[in-house]
Fold this protein.
Amino acid sequence: MTREELLKAIDEKYEAMGQNPDVHLSGLLHAEPITYWDYIQVDALLGLQAQRTVLKDEMVFIMYHQINEILFKMILWEIDQVSHEDPISTEKFSKHLDRVSRYFDMLSNSFTIMGDGMDVDQYMKFRDTLTPASGFQSAQYRKIEFASTELINLIDFRFRKTIDRNTPYTHAYDHLYWQAAGIDHKTGKRNKLVVNFDKRYKVEFLSFMEEYNTINLWTKFKSLPEADQKNVQLVNAMRHYDHTVNVKWVMHHLNAAKKYLNSGETSAEATGGSEWQKYMHPRYQRRIFFPELWTENELENWGIDNIEDHLILDVVV
């Protein structure tokens, strides 16, 4: 684009907005050039790590979880571009799904940073200052689940037959699979972990659940042309994402937790008080985003069989 064409385009842009292009050009003349540290907000970003103890490895724990939350935000950003595009092309759906999968691949393969990056004795000391907080309370992760699949697939497996599309969102919310982790197994009452979580996010979650009820990834996939729903490459991409989030990521997380919480003579409780091994293992709650893309045998062995390597070679019509 020539200078004349560029200036004309600028004029047209700001005139269309009801703005005087000359004012904006004058502002550009007097503005300071941007720097990397200002654009990325490096000082603010590096000032967000606040330890509660003097134990050095606590900093690893904090930064690792902050990196996770940034990646969760990237994932939600990509899903949003699929969910709110109507109609959506198969090409656009695939592009953003591939991005989401790459982010979760990165997350799944990153647990050695925390798993091998902290001394057990330091972790077992600073973790006592975290009670009753827990990674369970990642609101962004819950939103990723809501945005990925139909709500019925997130309901505690024991209650799914009692819930349908006419069920109030509040009732569905109370029977989500992760609510079981909010019950104190000693008293049978809801523990502080989930009480605090509800107080902070329940209203926001209910709104998000309703928004994504018909625009989640699974519903959007089923809105694609029938031929594209049988596209082998796309189906494999959907399966890869499902398995990575609900088996691979979970098992890496579980194994990292076991290294620390099972390091002593007895198994330690999670900081939030949940029965973490039963809550986390995929074979108990069978978290599956896209159930119709898996065979009966694969569903039966969910979380046990290494189905991540089982690619679909052809989609049966």
